[in-house]
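Deliverable D2.4 — example input (structure tokens):
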């Protein structure tokens, strides 16, 4: 049984299930945008459009939760013949949640990844090498590691400049502020490549300020069928149009502040 005293499954509007956390009083995904849809359009698609041409892609998935961002990355890479080696590192504080995912109802798009889901629930690691004997790889080679513990500690364990992509998908800044502070994003910046991209559903000015104060350029990720989201990078991203004019935002909102530890 997935449902217990801490979380219950909830149907979201794209037909995929998400969950409601009684501890944080929040859903794991936007029920309006849909769990799978949100994961794809706010995180996976914009990130892999920018980085999917690389031989190897290192992804930090903050935090594992129900595993949608990790699984949607594998799904999207396979569907789009992305042959990059993909390494995903994902912290998750709630070990009981990870174990219980074996009985979570995932969307049909993830059906073929049942073995990955089980391996991750049981061992926290999945390694795939799908190269044939002739050396040709038919789809993404994937390495996934779940770290059971505090994301703030975990992110300090990586070398400088390791990550191409960061999925910033913690509970909201109000519910879980410790994963949205200026100091937190400073640690994230330290482990990102200078042309790395960070994706997040948050459009809060406090979030954008915390990123801006660390030197990130801020872009709006907008599209049909989902609410605006944010893309941030230490480099300029031409494909997202002009960066948000943060100096103007600050001038218009002089009392706005980033969150601090
Ligand atoms: C919004 S959910 C993540 C949803 C996930 N990305 C998905 O696609 O299913 C946030 C997760 O962060 C976890 N969490 C909260 N604080 C944490 C921390 N300090 N370190 C690691 N995980 C944390 C919660 O247990 C929860 O599972």
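Example output (designed residues):
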């Amino acid at each position: 049984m997935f449902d217990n005293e801490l979380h219950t499954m909830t149907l979201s509007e794209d037909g995929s299930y998400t969950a409601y956390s009684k501890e944080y009083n929040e859903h794991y995904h936007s029920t309006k945008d849909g769990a799978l849809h949100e994961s794809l359009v706010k995180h996976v698609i914009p990130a892999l459009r920018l980085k999917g041409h690389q031989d190897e892609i290192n992804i930090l998935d903050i935090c594992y939760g129900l595993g949608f961002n990790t699984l949607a990355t594998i799904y999207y890479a396979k569907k789009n013949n992305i042959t990059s080696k993909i390494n995903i590192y994902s912290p998750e504080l709630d070990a009981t949640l990870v174990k219980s995912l074996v009985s979570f109802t995932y969307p049909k798009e993830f059906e073929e990844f049942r073995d990955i889901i089980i391996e991750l629930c049981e061992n926290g690691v999945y390694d795939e090498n799908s190269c044939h004997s002739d050396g040709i790889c038919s789809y993404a080679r994937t390495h996934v590691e779940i770290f059971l513990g505090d994301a703030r500690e975990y992110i300090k364990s990586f070398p400088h400049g390791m990550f191409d992509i960061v999925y910033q998908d913690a509970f909201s800044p109000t519910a879980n502020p410790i994963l949205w502070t200026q100091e937190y994003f400073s640690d994230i910046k330290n482990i990102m490549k200078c042309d790395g991209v960070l994706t997040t559903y948050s459009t809060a000015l406090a979030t954008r300020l915390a990123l801006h104060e660390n030197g990130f350029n801020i872009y709006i990720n907008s599209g049909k069928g989902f609410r605006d989201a944010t893309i941030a990078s230490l480099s300029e991203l031409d494909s997202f149009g002009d960066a948000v004019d943060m100096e103007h935002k600050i001038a218009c909102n002089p009392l706005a502040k980033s969150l601090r530890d």
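Residues 28, 39, 63, 65-69, 91-94, 97, 150-152, 169-171, 176, 179 surround S-adenosylmethionine (CB under 6 Å).
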